[in-house]
Structures are given as C-alpha cells and as structure tokens.
C-alpha cells in the first residue's frame, strides 16, 4: 500500500500521560499536514511541513503539542500532559508542492483520554 | 461567521433521488475548492475539485459561484453506496485546507 499510513490506529491513555503518533506520507510528497477531527466536525488544521521545515501552526496547537519531521519523510506528533479535551481523531495528510493542493489523508489515529 | 458553512443535514433520500448540497465560504481570496467524502470512522477522500466553469464526473456535478462565494454538489440517481458525509473544502491561497462540518447523506432502499 503506497498511501499515507499512521501509527497507532487507536490509542487509549490516561489524563496527564504523553502520547506520540507517527505519520508516513506518500513517498514522493514533500508536504505533510496534521489535522484534528472531533465528532460531528470537519477536520481542523493543526500544522504543516514542507520537507523538514514546519511552515505553519494553527492557534489550536497549544504548547503541549509538538510536531517534527526531522528528515523530511515521516512525521511525529506528540501531545504532552494529555487532557480529556484532546480526545479526537488525528489525521495526517500529504501532498506535492507546485500542483493543485489536493491532499491525501491517512486512516487517522483515534485518541481517547480517560 | 464560520469560514466554511454547509447545510446541517442529515439528508435522507430514497435510491434514485437527486440531492443537492450547498456550501458558502467567507474568504473572498479563496483559490481552490473541493468536495471530499468521508465514510463513517474513515479518513476523508477527495471526491472532486470544483472549477469556476463547473464540472461533472458521472452522476456528480459541482458548481462554483465566486461572486456569491457559494459552492454546490449535485448527486443524481443516488445509490446506497453514496451514503456518507460530504465535506466542502476551501484552500485560501496557503497550503492548508479549511473544511466545513460536513453534510451527512443517507440513501435508503
């Protein structure tokens, strides 16, 4: 499968714990995005990378959230000191710069904070 | 005002019906427009891009009115497999996409 992959698919954690999610984009895609989606809402943008550079961050991305893409390939999203309000589906997407901004989404990581 | 607003739904229609979804966006500088489809507990998938001249893909027709900042999606001859949430999506000149809340479609036999 050459699509966007995410790991893990599901994560249950206790409030206050740290969690880390991984995203592997489509191999030739140099742009990578993180979104968050809660029930009944559309995905909300969190942050985006072009190659290894983090070019934009949403105001939704509090100080407890950090994302990296060290080699311009896979990316990680870490949430520190999780809160119940962090429970959501975290979606990763990738695209190619210089073309129509069509983004291809991964299956998501569903986070439940107890 | 939200950046992208859609009909609240859900839309319940019988097989074979024609259904139309409406969407408005607030940023007049928006440059690209899309409809994504999202099945329950799955990721969004691109259904079609929306061009100023309007475009059609089989049973699906998308229209864009830049003056009114309005986008529509028409589905003809609905199939059971069309049941999903349809997301109106706008790209405003930056690389990120802004999604509406989505409109759920339920097609019944």
Provide structural commentary.
The complex is a heterodimer of chains A (about 110) and B (about 110). By secondary structure, chain A is mostly beta strands. Helix content of chain A is about 0%, strand content about 50%. Chain A contains no helices and eleven strands. In chain A, the strands form two sheets. In chain A, strands 2, 4, 5, 6, 9, 10 and 11 form a seven-stranded mixed beta sheet that branches. A four-stranded antiparallel beta sheet of chain A has the order 1-3-8-7, with no helix packed on it. With about 110 residues, chain B is an all-beta fold. In chain B, strand 4 and strand 5 form a beta hairpin. The radius of gyration of chain B is 13 Å and the shape is globular. At the A-B interface, strand 5 and strand 10 of A face strand 5, strand 9 and strand 10 of B.
What is this structure, in a nutshell?
By secondary structure, chain A is mainly beta. Chain A has strands at residues 5-7, 10-13, 19-24, 31-37, 44-50, 53-57, 65-68, 75-79, 88-95, 104-105, 109-113. In chain B, the strands form 2 sheets. In chain B, strands 2, 4, 5, 9, 10 and 11 form a 6-stranded mixed beta sheet that branches. In chain B, strands 1-3-8-7-6 form a 5-stranded antiparallel beta sheet, with no helix packed on it.
């Amino acid at each position: 499968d050459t699509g966007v992959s995410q790991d893990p698919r599901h994560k249950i954690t206790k409030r206050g714990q740290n969690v880390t999610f991984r995203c592997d984009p489509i191999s030739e895609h140099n742009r990578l995005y993180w979104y968050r989606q809660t029930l009944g809402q559309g995905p909300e943008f969190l942050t985006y990378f072009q190659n290894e550079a983090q070019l934009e961050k949403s105001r939704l991305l509090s100080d407890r959230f950090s994302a990296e893409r060290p080699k311009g390939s896979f990316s990680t999203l870490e949430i520190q000191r999780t809160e119940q309000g962090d429970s959501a589906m975290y979606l990763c997407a990738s695209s190619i710069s210089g073309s129509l901004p069509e983004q291809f989404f991964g299956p998501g990581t569903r986070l439940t904070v107890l | 005002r939200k950046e992208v607003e859609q009909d609240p739904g859900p839309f319940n229609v019988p097989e074979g019906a024609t259904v139309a979804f409406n969407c408005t966006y607030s940023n007049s500088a928006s440059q690209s427009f899309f409809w994504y489809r999202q099945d329950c507990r799955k990721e969004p998938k691109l259904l079609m891009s929306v061009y100023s001249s309007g475009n059609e893909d089989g049973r699906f027709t998308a229209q864009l009115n830049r003056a009114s900042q309005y986008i529509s999606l028409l589905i003809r001859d609905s199939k059971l497999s069309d049941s999903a949430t349809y997301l109106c999506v706008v790209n405003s000149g930056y690389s990120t996409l802004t999604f509406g809340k989505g409109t759920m479609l339920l097609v019944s036999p």
